[in-house]
Amino acid sequence: MKAFDQYLKQIEQEIKTKKVGYATDEIGSVQEVHDGVALVAGLDKAGFGEVVEFESGVKGYIIDMTEDSVGVIVLGDYLLIKSGEQVKALNYTLSVPVGDEFIGRSINPLGEVIDGGAAINAVSRNPVEKVAPSVVYRKSVTVPLQTGIKSIDAIFPIGRGQRELIIGDRGTGKSTIALDTIINQKGQGVICIYCGIGQKNSKIALVSELLRKHGALDYSIIVSASASDPAALQYLAPYSASAMAEYFMSKGKDVLVIYDDLSKHAWAYRQVSLILRRPAGREAYPGDIFYLHSRLLERACRLDPKYGGGSITALPIIETLEGDVSAYIPTNVISITDGQIFLETDLFNAGIRPAINIGISVSRVGGNAQTKAMKQVAGKLKLDLAQYREMAAFSQFESDLDEQTKKLLNQGAKVTQLMKQDKNKPYRLGEEIIVLWAANKGYLESVPVTAVNDCEAQLLSAIRTRGQKLCAKIEKEKIVNEETEAELKPFVKDIVEGFVTT
Amino acid sequence: MRLDPQVKEKLKKTFSAELSASRNAVRITSSYPFSKEYIDSILARFPEFSGGNVENVVDKQILGGFIIQSGSQMVDLSIRSALHLLQKKLYESV
Ligand SMILES: Nc1ncnc2c1ncn2[C@@H]1O[C@H](COP(=O)(O)OP(=O)(O)O)[C@@H](O)[C@H]1O
Ligand SMILES: [Mg+2]
């Protein structure tokens, strides 16, 4: 074996002359593993948010540091991790792949596809945790984000860069409002990200199917950590979705992000915190639970054009129990957002859908973004509904009421009917304005309450056929001027007359 | 627990001395035993690991080279980890 000996000699020669560089690693060893969270001793010099690698190849990232151990969220299969296993700090903070390649796809919070399609090899990455842009970079909200839901666009308008909370009990139509808003962004140049947290996989599949059916997947991304994923991954999901949104915002695009829902996100964080043995506070949530959502929602903003323009509009969803908005998480999130759309089971069951409680819902900044035409028609609408709410209590004594009050009640009842809208049927801006204009001008006065919805349906189909030009005109001019009104009058009258009973 | 303060103080001192010794202890893992001189010549090149008690552990599993470790700091220059790295690179490229 002369050749072999020579070979060894050659290697020895090479090793002798070669300079070997080395790096000092920061290491620790696994003490405990629970549901996606590992407690690791050592790692003395590792930092918060730093990524670590387990001997088995699984990665994780540090979310908790105590005197002599750190808490690590395991990104991947935590069942592979054994107690005593070595853990190495990798010297960088967690980032996720981002990019245009993800549009139309469903991914988990780590950017791995979950829709059964081909894997995505993204070139760019964005940090999961990022400090929100400071005031200097921001611009106030002035561009509307049309939801296509007439009651919201008229009464609680949302602007690009706003954070509007959707809150209500289970099954009150929260997700539906969010998804309809995504569907309505077709052709509006808005990238939509739907972030599912702790939802059933079957629900996510339905969401994906709904968006596909309406052609909305062409501009949407679904990020999901489902109920069957570890709590740690669910905790990560909204930050990961936010990192994706920031990619598009940095390209000057307007982005809409839905967090469905942050109650389950808070539960996931509570679970992680309890595993880490952090002291539990109110409702067993850890002390920094407020910061959990404030730092997430602060990342929604509208950038000044000097810094690239672009915006992130956030529609977080909170699920309440029996309408209790004074629970810990609801009050926290209400205080962080720019308003809330409050949905009620009673209204939903009474057939008023979307089941928005007009009295306690509010949008604080979107008004500045509302188009002039919408402002023209929305003002009276708000008044009608407000007066109706005040008077409704008296409606039981109808016979004793004076004409004026009766008229108000009558108009209020009809406008309430008019505010109903079926799911997945967003209106164009022009359509919303014509319908509301008709109500404003008193065309519903002689239409019976029970016929309001049929009347509206016919008006709508007329707009979508004969009225297309008129609709486009309003959208273009963004105002209802005299000329338009002159055209609208015969158009609306023609349809309404068919419903008048004498 | 009730302790004589003097005894307690002494215990505390011993304990923290033990602790700092174990913190500073340097462990060199190699695939065959290293001589004292050899270890010293290695440590001379790693100033961050000097100053503690040195312990030489033999582990055939690392194949060759050595690993120096102290507290949570580690320098891994073993053949095993080099092969692991190679394996990872190979799989990554496909
Ligand atoms: N405007 C609406 N018109 C008709 N049905 C609706 C409307 N909004 C919601 N729904 C139906 O109500 C149910 C619950 O809605 P969902 O959005 O899933 O509620 P949540 O997210 O609040 O639990 C769904 O079956 C949905 O189709
Ligand atoms: Mg829902």
Description:
The complex is a heterodimer of chains A (502) and B (94). Chain A is α/β, with parallel strands linked by helices and 502 residues long. Chain A has 15 helices and 16 strands. Chain A has helices at 2-17, 150-155, 174-183, 201-213, 231-250, 262-275, 289-297, 328-336, 345-349, 372-392, 403-418, 429-440, 452-465, 468-477, 482-496, and strands spanning 25-34, 37-42, 50-54, 59-65, 69-75, 86-93, 95-98, 106-107, 124-127, 165-168, 190-197, 220-225, 254-260, 311-319, 339-343, 362-363. Chain A has an 8-stranded mixed β-sheet, sandwiched between helices. The termini of chain A are far apart. In chain A, 47% of the residues are buried. Chain B is α+β, with helices and mostly antiparallel strands and 94 residues long. Chain B has a single domain, classed as Glutaredoxin (3-Layer(aba) Sandwich). Chain B is 46% helix and 23% strand. In chain B, strands 2-1-3-4 form a 4-stranded mixed β-sheet. The A-B interface holds A 20, 22-28, 42-45, 88 and B 48, 69, 71-77. Strand 1 (25-34) of chain A pairs antiparallel with strand 4 (73-78) of chain B, so a sheet runs across the interface.
